[in-house]
């Protein structure tokens, strides 16, 4: 990242982390701002949006927002919501899989209860022939998240995968290890504030790491989920796949709800597999602030959407 981008990101994350700012976000004005990136507060609203995406040839992954729960009973409630979510996808015959966060299921409070909650969701998804993506959070939870997915696979629950972040130094090793274990991965740059002790700090380094992750997947003919809005990454992945004669069905581009929707539709029209990450729910603030912090253009999109 450049100096300006780094300053913008750190400043915005600092401001949005203030209790007063978070409180103001809960107003109708704050909710209106967030609606650019959030597909509603209810499951029905989110499924309606997924249906619209399907008509454009775009698949989805549905995320009921929530993280950092303060009591294990909250995690239990989220688990129940996910069981309902999976049934909703099946009933609507929506082209969508599922994403969830380990801290939402209680990882920071009770790792054993967290695993039991996630395992129940994954088993329920398997009954409905669906897939669960265990999202990656910040570095205190990286190894725990990987361990959860490995354990699920060891129990035969292979309809679960996770996410690897290009900006972490450890990711090169994790990619090799998880590819060997045949665990499905979503490849991303990374959206959390991480120190120079564990993560690359320049855009060039992150981009090189990201391309290396994609290349390792495509070279092994492993199904590749490339989550990026960056034209450089998208163009590079297209060209690399063509040069290796890798069919469009062997990988997919993933983007976020509310960002570059026209480009998502165009990629689908070109015959690429496209998946939109569709978040919904009332606990949207942490997710929303990370989206704003990624780059100034996202803040401009929100303001344009508002006015």
From TrEMBL:
<keyword id="KW-0285">Flavoprotein</keyword>
<dbReference type="InterPro" id="IPR029041">
    <property type="entry name" value="FAD-linked_oxidoreductase-like"/>
</dbReference>
<dbReference type="GO" id="GO:0010133">
    <property type="term" value="P:L-proline catabolic process to L-glutamate"/>
</dbReference>
<dbReference type="GO" id="GO:0004657">
    <property type="term" value="F:proline dehydrogenase activity"/>
</dbReference>
<dbReference type="Pfam" id="PF01619">
    <property type="entry name" value="Pro_dh"/>
</dbReference>
<keyword id="KW-0274">FAD</keyword>
<keyword id="KW-0642">Proline metabolism</keyword>
<keyword id="KW-0560">Oxidoreductase</keyword>
<dbReference type="InterPro" id="IPR008219">
    <property type="entry name" value="PRODH_bac_arc"/>
</dbReference>
<keyword id="KW-0547">Nucleotide-binding</keyword>
<feature type="binding site">
    <location>
        <begin position="228"/>
        <end position="229"/>
    </location>
    <ligand>
        <name>FAD</name>
    </ligand>
</feature>
<feature type="binding site">
    <location>
        <position position="165"/>
    </location>
    <ligand>
        <name>FAD</name>
    </ligand>
</feature>
<feature type="binding site">
    <location>
        <position position="290"/>
    </location>
    <ligand>
        <name>substrate</name>
    </ligand>
</feature>
<feature type="binding site">
    <location>
        <position position="136"/>
    </location>
    <ligand>
        <name>FAD</name>
    </ligand>
</feature>
<protein>
    <recommendedName>
        <fullName>proline dehydrogenase</fullName>
        <ecNumber>1.5.5.2</ecNumber>
    </recommendedName>
</protein>
<feature type="binding site">
    <location>
        <begin position="189"/>
        <end position="191"/>
    </location>
    <ligand>
        <name>FAD</name>
    </ligand>
</feature>
<feature type="binding site">
    <location>
        <position position="203"/>
    </location>
    <ligand>
        <name>FAD</name>
    </ligand>
</feature>
<comment type="pathway">
    <text>Amino-acid degradation; L-proline degradation into L-glutamate; L-glutamate from L-proline: step 1/2.</text>
</comment>
<feature type="binding site">
    <location>
        <position position="101"/>
    </location>
    <ligand>
        <name>substrate</name>
    </ligand>
</feature>
<dbReference type="InterPro" id="IPR002872">
    <property type="entry name" value="Proline_DH_dom"/>
</dbReference>
<feature type="domain" description="Proline dehydrogenase">
    <location>
        <begin position="46"/>
        <end position="298"/>
    </location>
</feature>
<dbReference type="InterPro" id="IPR015659">
    <property type="entry name" value="Proline_oxidase"/>
</dbReference>
<feature type="binding site">
    <location>
        <position position="291"/>
    </location>
    <ligand>
        <name>substrate</name>
    </ligand>
</feature>
<dbReference type="GO" id="GO:0000166">
    <property type="term" value="F:nucleotide binding"/>
</dbReference>
């Amino acid at each position: 990242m450049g100096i300006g981008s780094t300053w913008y990101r750190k400043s915005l994350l600092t401001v949005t982390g203030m209790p007063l700012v978070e409180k103001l976000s809960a107003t109708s004005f704050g909710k209106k701002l967030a609606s650019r990136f959030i597909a509603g507060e209810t499951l029905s609203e989110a499924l309606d949006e997924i249906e619209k995406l399907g008509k454009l040839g775009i698949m989805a992954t549905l995320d009921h927002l929530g993280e950092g729960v303060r009591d294990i009973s909250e995690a239990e409630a989220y688990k129940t919501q996910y069981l309902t979510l999976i049934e909703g996808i099946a009933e609507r015959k929506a082209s969508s899989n599922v994403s969830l966060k380990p801290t939402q299921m209680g990882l920071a409070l009770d790792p054993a209860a967290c695993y039991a909650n996630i395992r129940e969701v994954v088993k329920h998804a398997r009954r409905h022939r669906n897939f669960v993506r265990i999202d990656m959070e910040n570095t205190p939870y990286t190894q725990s998240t990987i361990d959860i997915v490995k354990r699920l696979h060891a129990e035969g629950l292979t309809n679960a995968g996770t996410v690897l972040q290009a900006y972490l130094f450890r990711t090169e090793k994790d990619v090799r290890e998880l590819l060997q274990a045949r665990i499905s991965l979503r490849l991303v740059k990374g959206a959390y504030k991480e120190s120079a002790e564990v993560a690359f700090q320049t855009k060039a380094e992150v981009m090189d790491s990201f391309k290396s992750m994609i290349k390792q997947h495509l070279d092994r003919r492993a199904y590749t989920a490339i989550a990026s809005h960056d034209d450089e990454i998208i163009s590079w992945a297209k060209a690399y796949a063509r040069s290796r004669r890798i069919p469009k069905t062997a990988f997919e581009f993933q983007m976020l709800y509310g960002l570059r929707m026209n480009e998502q539709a165009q990629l689908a029209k070109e015959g690429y597999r496209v998946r939109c990450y569709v978040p919904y729910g009332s606990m949207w603030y942490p997710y929303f602030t990370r989206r704003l912090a990624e780059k100034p253009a996202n803040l401009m999109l929100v303001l344009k959407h508002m006015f």
